[in-house]
Amino acid sequence: MDGLGPRIKQLRLQAGMSKAALARRVGVSDVTISYWESGTIKQIGHERLVALTSALNCSIKQLLDDDVLNAMAVDSQMSNRAVLSLHSHLAAPWEQQTAEPDAMSTLQLLTQDCHLVTPAENESFDFLFEGDLAAVLPCDKFQQDGLYLLEREGILQIQYLEHLASGRMRVSGEQLHGVTVESVRHPPFRIVGYIRARWSRQ
Known about the structure:
6 helices
């Protein structure tokens, strides 16, 4: 696809929707849909992109491709980036890449120095589900309370890490992992990245 506009039009037609029907579901006018599809409006805020994925019943990765990630920019300086697929049983996707430094351009504001990731097809993580998008800042140490991408026994997980007054940290998840208290210096996992921002499909 040459851009986000043709992708929106293709997905809309595949869904058998008129511009007016899509506009109602997204909460914009049908003229705005026309402008998006024609490329007159090239940049769409992340809230509208999430609404589009819901209306078109597609993942954020289906909606976006390597050439149109700049459509997610809140401002006009967001650069083109690939959305990386996150697999629980594989290394973090940026650790698999051998990209040139100039290919690693950064996003503005929340996504600066981050990689954009979405769960791979049929993959689901605590706090990040299929179709969601996250900005992950690579790091190897606990820096502040928040969501982190961890590798535990060769499996990637997303967990909430919280600093305790005792100098230890509380580790919690949404689904299977419960709550544990671990040493900050010698945790039973490897920290791979800090999740700086998330966008939910719903």
